[in-house]
Amino acid sequence: MQVLGRRQSDRFCRVSLTWFPIHISHAGSFGVGLIINLVIPCALFFSPGLGVTHPHVALLRHFPHSRGPARDTTAKAKKQSKALLGDPLPKQNAAIPIQVQVPAPRAQYRSVSMSSSGSSPFLLSNIPYSNHTPSPFFGLGSEHPFANYWTSRGGLAEVVGVLPAKDQADILVNKYFDAVDPVYAMIHKRNFYADYERFWSLPPAEKQIADPVLVALHFVVYAMGTQFISTPSGQERAQIAEFYISASQQALRLSSYLSRASVRTLQAMVLICYFLMNDNHASDAWSFGGILMRQAYAMGLHRDPDIITPRCSQSDKQQRRKLWQAVYFQDTFLTVLLKLPPTTTFSDVRVESLTDELDDIMTNGSTSNGSNDPMINPMSISNIAPTSDTFPPYELSDRQYIRSMWHMANLVQRTVCLPRSLDNPLTSSPTDKASLLSQYHDLHKSFPTHLSTHDESEVFTLAKENPRKLRQNMFFRSNFWHCVMIINADENEGAGVSCDVKGALEAARMALRAFFHFWEYLKVDAGVWWVFQHRAFEEALLMARILGAQEHPLSPNYEYGISPASDPLLLKSKEDVRKMLEILDLAGGAPEMQKTRTDVLRTAFADIMW
């Protein structure tokens, strides 16, 4: 990391005018060098009369004197440090390095199970929460997750001033649509690119008065894209991504997002939540997600668009349905992991309303003669600027995936999230448990084969020919079998419901197998997604605890004294836990989070005495 800055020769630093361009260079996965150019206001480093104030900067020294007005300094810095993929740093830009010290984080995780009092003790999850100082707010970190680089009067111009170079932004957007969009398909790609290219074509002065929400959406896409760029240094990548997410949040703040909301606002907020999870801020994501849910309700996303927005175009209605599904899905499956109450419990949006219609026709309007014939929306993008690629070729398969995940979330929220949020067992009798598992298996049969298959050859074919469907397959399988595992492991002693060891191990192995495939074919992605990693950790932990308590084979006809190792399922499960431990030693993510997971799982594995 190299920094050029201005010496603080006077007691007071003019924080609103002076800027420090930071250059971070690393090699990407593209075979060429990636140079990130960040221009950060000097408020990052100085506060008037107080010297160094930012917690991540321990020492600043040897700043060369700047000459001329601040805007000349900024222009010169940008000219000298133009961020281009593959371009080396200019030799004339010999910057003096600074020492940057990040405070040693304090590892935190929930030490006791938050599942139902009647549930299995094997479901203890040990979630590593945010990595800062303790807070009385149910044990979560107290430091704000968005670093503040911004001055009080900088406005949107300050945020726009730190945009990456256009060619670099193109790569980050492309990475987002490769890695994130397949599993959370809520942004209309063609519309996004139309707005994106229009924004970048604006002169600098007009960019500074653009829609702040659009800028926020762009920056969170850059941040998410950065998380999936392969770099030698995970810390550098995290710092760059965190800077972009801070810019996104600042743009949202400038848009007054707490009192105003739009589709773009909620899209940005959904992505910010996932970013925070991936950045070891799961607790902050939970809290930020609460605001997201309230805004989604305020916008009426939970209502059927045919009822509350009947004259909207078909594509706008479908966009609202996709966005609601993204909010609903995020809330449901985060509560599965955190074992806290879901919020998106009120909605009349039907899954089947997300149809396969690809035209932009208003089916609920009326023509001038009062008939109910379809009416073309004259203001639709398709009508104003018709193209042959209004929708990408994968649109219909994406809708299949969205509907499938939506059906699953409906069942999971009702049968898993709600009972556990009130410390209730999931089932009231062995018959009830069998019936609930039957519902899950019946639903599984209704899903498209390419989403549910776990056959090695079919998964290999997806990896080779269709990485988008591969990602959807992994997320679908992981979520589904994780929930089946929870139901099998759940106990209700008073009602005679015990842990189904065989069913729990088989479901856990199915879920963990999805993570192993993810790690094999998309290792970078598998190392980034917190939700996927933590599900896999919980699955391996449950298996280890079941195996540690097992004293004999599962067969009812086993001979006394025979080791559990003679049982094929128990032996394979033990090997899966061992493999997960090996992956945890290699996986990316926050070091303290990985250490917590590894230590907990290794301790449980050591308790397997056979």
TrEMBL record:
Pfam families: Fungal_trans. The chain crosses the membrane at residues 20-46. One of its GO terms (molecular function) is zinc ion binding. GO terms for cellular component: nucleus. One of its GO terms (biological process) is DNA-templated transcription. Residues 285-360 form the Xylanolytic transcriptional activator regulatory domain. Its main location: nucleus. InterPro entries: Sec_Metabolite_Reg, XnlR_reg_dom. It is found in: Nucleus. Keywords: Membrane, Nucleus, Transmembrane, Transmembrane helix. This is Fungal-specific transcription factor domain-containing protein. It comes from Dendryphion nanum. The lineage of its organism: Eukaryota, Fungi, Dikarya, Ascomycota, Pezizomycotina.
